């Protein structure tokens, strides 16, 4: 049959593309190396804010265990938060910002949870500078909130903004069975996600086998200590075989991230509780997950999503959001 491509040309092109890929990947590494917040002494405003939020979140998660909260938990997160706040203050950044207030708030919520409810001697907060303990009543932006199953009943008839603003990551489940038809609806809808040149390289593994779920979550390492297993774990992957050129080297993450967001909103629409879980595994754990679920080597694992039914009431982190002015630049 008629063939237009010439094998020699294609082989030469492939060789050049590989060189270009290395160059572009080197630029990725260089940018990441320069700007990531590897150390607390990486002290740009953005780097310190990221470090503050990371630790605020860790403490919010600990507080959201409610009655199962481990008294005195999170000493490392508190120490890291303290150091980021100290460097932040030392740099003279504003104390009126969203992030600074988040950092201060969570120290107060931690004290409240221990001092008021658990009766812990506040002296155990020795990793936190005394100045961050004062002015308690003014800082309440961070902490926990309660999600009620009854508020989720009509999710499918909510408007999009109400649905998305009402969604929160939920890490505890009732243990009630999840209808696989609902998961199929969610994934069918997510298939409408835009992807670069409509490549649609995604593949979702729906894991319901309890042992495999348990082992996947153990290897994922970001979902520890919750009393009930989810009803299923979705493993969202995108094949690198969907991409044609070195400039598309990160598209698996972009298309996969968009797809995952469609899945997460779909689950909310179906009144299912869910939490996205990172796929930032070390090499050995990733190899084991791939072997366990049979994920093809061509596929990039983008994210896991744990899914279950809502409990009547669940305490979750507030996970408050930045104001629009922090992330919108209007260029007229
Ligand atoms: C890519 C990604 C990875 C995440 N990984 C984890 C994780 O490993 N463990 C976890 O408990 N939550 C994880 N989350 C959930 C985030 O903590 C959560 O989305 C964030 O705090 C905002 O809260 P919200 O989802 O309740 O609005 C992840 C979220 C995303 C988007």
Automatic annotation (TrEMBL):
<keyword id="KW-0288">FMN</keyword>
<dbReference type="InterPro" id="IPR000415">
    <property type="entry name" value="Nitroreductase-like"/>
</dbReference>
<dbReference type="Pfam" id="PF00881">
    <property type="entry name" value="Nitroreductase"/>
</dbReference>
<dbReference type="GO" id="GO:0016491">
    <property type="term" value="F:oxidoreductase activity"/>
</dbReference>
<keyword id="KW-0560">Oxidoreductase</keyword>
<dbReference type="InterPro" id="IPR050627">
    <property type="entry name" value="Nitroreductase/BluB"/>
</dbReference>
<keyword id="KW-0285">Flavoprotein</keyword>
<protein>
    <recommendedName>
        <fullName>Nitroreductase domain-containing protein</fullName>
    </recommendedName>
</protein>
<dbReference type="InterPro" id="IPR029479">
    <property type="entry name" value="Nitroreductase"/>
</dbReference>
<feature type="domain" description="Nitroreductase">
    <location>
        <begin position="166"/>
        <end position="215"/>
    </location>
</feature>
């Amino acid at each position: 049959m008629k063939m237009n491509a010439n094998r020699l040309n294609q082989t030469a092109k492939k060789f050049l593309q590989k060189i270009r890929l290395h160059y572009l990947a080197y630029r990725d590494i260089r940018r990441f190396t320069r700007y990531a917040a590897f150390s607390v002494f990486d002290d740009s405003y953005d780097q310190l804010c990221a470090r503050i939020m990371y630790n605020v979140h860790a403490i919010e998660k600990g507080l959201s265990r409610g009655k199962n909260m481990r008294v005195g938990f999170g000493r490392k997160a508190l120490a890291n938060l303290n150091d980021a706040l100290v460097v932040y203050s030392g740099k003279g950044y504003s104390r009126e910002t969203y992030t600074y207030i988040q950092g201060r708030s969570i120290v107060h919520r931690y004290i409240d949870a221990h001092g008021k409810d658990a009766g812990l001697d506040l002296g155990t907060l020795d990793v936190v500078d005394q100045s961050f303990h004062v002015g308690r009543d003014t800082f309440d932006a961070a902490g926990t909130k309660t999600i009620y199953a009854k508020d989720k009943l009509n999710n499918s008839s909510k408007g999009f903004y109400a649905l998305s603003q009402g969604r929160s990551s939920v890490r505890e489940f009732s243990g009630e069975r999840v209808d696989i038809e609902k998961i199929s609806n969610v994934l069918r809808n997510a298939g409408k996600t835009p992807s670069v040149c409509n490549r649609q390289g995604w593949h979702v593994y729906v894991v319901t086998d309890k042992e495999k779920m348990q082992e996947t979550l153990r290897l994922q390492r970001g979902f520890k200590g919750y009393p009930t297993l989810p009803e299923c774990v979705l493993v969202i992957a995108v094949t690198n075989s969907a991409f044609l050129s070195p400039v598309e080297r990160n598209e698996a993450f972009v298309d996969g991230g968009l797809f995952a967001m469609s899945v997460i909103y779909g689950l909310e629409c179906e009144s299912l509780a869910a939490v996205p879980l990172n796929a930032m595994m070390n090499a050995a754990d990733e190899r084991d997950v791939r072997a366990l679920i049979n994920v093809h080597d061509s596929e990039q694992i983008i994210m896991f999503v744990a899914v279950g039914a809502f409990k009547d009431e669940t305490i979750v982190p507030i996970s408050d959001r930045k104001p629009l002015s922090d992330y919108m630049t209007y260029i007229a």
